[in-house]
Structures are given as C-alpha cells and as structure tokens.
Design a protein that fits this description.
The chain has 380 residues and is α+β, with helices and mostly antiparallel strands. It has 15 helices and twelve strands. A hairpin with a 4-residue loop joins β5 and β6. α1 packs antiparallel against α2, α4 runs antiparallel to α11 and α13 packs antiparallel against α14.
C-alpha cells in the first residue's frame, strides 16, 4: 500500500480520535495502537497475496450452505443467499436470480403514510391485481372488468388512467367507465367469442401503475427510518421518484449499480454483498481479501467474471489459461500463432517444475567471489 494512502487513512482516524471525549492520555494510546495495527497489516514484497486471498475466500465458502434463500430483514421476501449468491457475484451474472433493493427516504418523507404511498408508486401493479372479476357480455360482444374500489382508492389509481393504459397496450379498443366497471369493446367488424377470450386474458396483464419488474415493495421500520424493501430492481426509475434518498439506495444487481452510479460503486457493492453473504453463514473473512478480488474484477472499468470468459481467460500466460479450462484449445491456439510464455506467474512455473517468482523466488542472488591470494613459498 502507498505510504501516502496509509497516512491519509491514519489521519482520518486520528481526526475522529481528537474529536472524541477521551482524555489526552487515552487519545495518545489509541493513536499509537492504530499505527501499530497498520504496521502489522503490511505485507512483504513478494508475498503471494492473490493465492492467499483465493484460499481465504474459497476455503470458508465451502462451509456455506446450499440453502438458496433467506427471509430478508424478517419481512417475508425470499432473497438468494449462501453458495448460490457467492457464485452469482464471482461469475458476474448480468442479473441475480432474485434482484432486490433497499430504499431509504428523505427526512421530510420519513413517515408511515408517505412511505406507504411511495411504496405503492414503486410496486408493479397490473390490471389483474385490482379487479374483482372479469366476464364476457355475449349480447353486446364486450368484456366487462369490475374494479376493486377499495384497492383502487388505496393505490390512488383513476379509472381513466386504466383505460388509457389499456389503449396504449392493446390497439383498436374502446373503453367506457360504468361505476366500478370498465367495459371494453373491440373496433372490429366481426368479433368472435374467441376474440373476446383472448382480449380478456390480455387485459389482465396490462401494466397500470408502478415500475415494471418490481413485484413486491414492503415498508419496514428500522430504528427511526422507514425503509422500503423490494423484490425486483430498477435504480434508474426509482431514483426519479420524489422523496427517495438516492445516495443511500442499495441494490444487489451489480451491473445496474455500475450503470447508474459508476464502477467504483459496483466495486463497493461486490465487497459488501460478499461480506454480508459470508457473515450470514458465520464466515468472517478479512475484508482485505475481498477488496483485492473486487479490485481485480473491476480494474478494467467493466465488471469481469472470475472464469474462462473473464479474468482467467484473459491472462497473458498461455499455460495459465490452459491450466484453468479448455486446455487443448489454448495450447493449439498458442502453437498456431507462435505465442510464447514468459513464465512470470505462479501457475505456469509450478506446471513446469520451476521455482515460482514469489517469496524468495522473486529475486536472484549473485555473488562474485574475491580472488584468493596464494602466498609465495619462501626461497631458501
């Protein structure tokens, strides 16, 4: 680690210590212990930190359960956890099996009423969620949809907007409101019963409110904050809703984080997601190993998987690539293109039985012997 970085970090901690209510003697002792702790955390030149990080993560990960889900925050949302979640992160999958968000609200919107209202504007609502029944009127050849008035009022959905949403989704259709019912009629010369049945099922899936893909949005009080937990993720659209505290929004979709907030935010998310997953299984891996992996996955500016199509497949060493997967493919390709291996890494040196360039193998020691002076024989 760069010495200037260490000094900056120590300076931040020392500033916090200075602002604390401790005595001068206690502050001095705490500052000294901080410096000692940092000195202990240095690694020596030549240490195989990549191998150590890999071992420190993968070995405890074998002790994690194969249980795929857990109840997030005790609010009834099943989120992927355990080994399946770890594999999702390291494989850099474009979308997790169970995308989820944790949303905080701005101070003036941090009330039960307002949080419930915001939750209703986020949760995806289709027509099938707000109807009591739908039926065919074979006399007039129309489809009648009866709305759940209490639910419609609770979600603040106007029937006119429902009709507009249906017309945008389904062409050549007229809709008229009759109390709690909406009557839909097709603009067609000859309408059959089959047409009405098809229309009836299409109507149920029309999106009328909320954000598509966010199937659940539950309000939970954590301390003084009302927090929204969702099943489904769309940071871009959620951030446009009034009252959302954007800097504190969290999603488990790493690629969405990168697109919305940048690669550094994605790096932080990788670390926090792995840490949370491991600790939920009772595994406490040093965060420095996780930071190294996250840095490696994001150092190019994009999120790369640890696999044949990511980091392992992009190594400069032919033997290192061949050692991982698709051995024959890499060796044949290297032979055809006249590629050679400089044997700078650990894997390729181990393969050929040569001392790897780590630890004491990183340096060569040469000694030039001094000339030996031979005493002349005394002449008699």
């Amino acid at each position: 680690m760069d010495e200037s970085v260490v000094q900056d970090v120590l300076g931040l901690y020392e500033e916090k210590v200075d602002k604390s209510d401790l005595s001068a003697k206690e502050k001095s002792a705490l500052k000294k212990s901080l410096k000692d702790k940092y000195n202990e955390m240095y690694y020596d030149c030549g240490d195989a930190i990549g191998v150590i990080a890999a071992q420190s993560i993968s070995e405890p990960a074998t002790q994690t359960t194969l249980r795929s889900y857990h109840r997030a925050a005790g609010i009834g949302l099943n989120i992927t956890q355990g080994l399946p979640r770890i594999l999702e992160i390291f494989d850099a999958r474009k979308a997790p099996v169970t995308p989820a968000m944790k949303i905080y609200l701005q101070k003036e919107f941090n009330t039960k009423e307002k949080s419930v209202k915001i939750a209703s504007s986020i949760k995806e609502t289709d027509l099938k969620h707000i109807i009591v029944s739908d039926s065919l009127d074979l006399g007039n050849m129309t489809v009648e949809v009866e709305l759940d008035k209490k639910l419609v009022d609770k979600l603040s959905i106007e029937p006119d907007k429902i009709v507009s949403a249906v017309k945008r989704k389904i062409k050549n259709l007229n809709g008229s409101i009759d109390g709690n019912k909406i009557i839909f009629e097709m603009n067609k010369d000859k309408v059959t019963v089959k047409d009405l049945q098809t229309l009836r099922f299409k109507l149920r899936d029309v999106h009328v409110k909320g954000i598509k893909g966010v199937t659940h949005c539950i309000v939970d009080k954590t301390g003084k904050d009302f927090v929204l937990y969702t099943l489904g993720s769309n940071l871009g659209k959620v951030s446009k809703i009034e009252g959302i505290d954007i800097p504190r929004m969290v999603s488990n979709n790493i690629f969405e984080i990168a697109d919305t907030f940048g690669i550094e935010a994605a790096r932080t998310t990788i670390v926090s997601e792995i840490t949370e997953t491991l600790r939920a299984q009772g595994v406490d891996t040093d965060v420095r190993h996780l930071l190294l992996v996250a840095d490696t996955m994001t150092q190019s500016g994009d999120i790369q998987a640890i696999g044949r199509y990511g980091l392992s497949g992009s190594k400069s060493s032919v033997l290192a690539r061949a050692n991982f997967e698709e051995t024959i493919k890499h060796l044949v390709d290297a032979a055809v293109h006249g590629m050679y291996d400089e044997l700078n890494g650990i894997v390729e040196n181990v393969m050929i039985g040569k001392t790897a360039r780590v630890g004491t193998g990183l340096v060569d020691i040469a000694m030039k012997a001094a000339p030996v002076k031979v005493a002349k024989e005394n002449k008699k």
